[in-house]
User: Fold this.
Amino acid sequence: MLGKGSAPTDAMASQKRDSFGEVCYANPMVLPNDEEMLRLKRELNFLLWTDDVVKVPEGFPTFVAHPGPLEPAKVNFQCGAHSTVTGAIFMRRGLRVTTRGGMAWLIENSADGDPRNSRCHEIGKHWWFTLDNYGLVDLSLKGEAADPLIYCNRSFGNRWQVVFGYSAEKLRHFLDVRQQGCFYLTLTKNQPSLEQLAHDLEQAFPPARQLGIMLSYRRIVEHAEGVLLGRRESIIGLGQTRAWEKLAE
Assistant:
């Protein structure tokens, strides 16, 4: 577990004002701890998960044998939005972020504990990011019984193994062992600049925009950063649409 602690003090990290006029912590060695990241995940999942599930196209190629038609996910992870918002929070702290796109697989333990009955979720298009020197971060995932927080190449509580690679052999081993965990296969990657970040954060979150709510990613980042640092109250108690409206005000 990462070291406990609240928001860093002046003695722990230098401060600077970024292009959004917010005070952020420039010392890349100061990382949020597990509990803070879990609080951030809960807030972002509430704000970003949507029920417009992505339909699996007919004939979609899979790496896992399925006895019948593929089951659609119960929610839209909005993994791209999670990656944009969370990656921005770390970039504003001075860390180097590499966004990654590709595929992911989740193996989730069955209630009876029999690995043969474990559920395998194949995500045909997924986005996450890595932090230089710290590893993989993904706050978007949702399972059947648990919603794993993946942070710095490990899961909260170490209940899910985290595996990543480029080879089919490594993926097959992960699927054959059937230990609860996540496998990430990178197909594309990019290191966004601060200029690109500034442009991306001015874009509106599409599900909110479809309702006529012009909620920019910048507003989501500012709120999420405040919740992470304990400076803002959670708005999970509001309905999702009302929360979008409040952040867009």
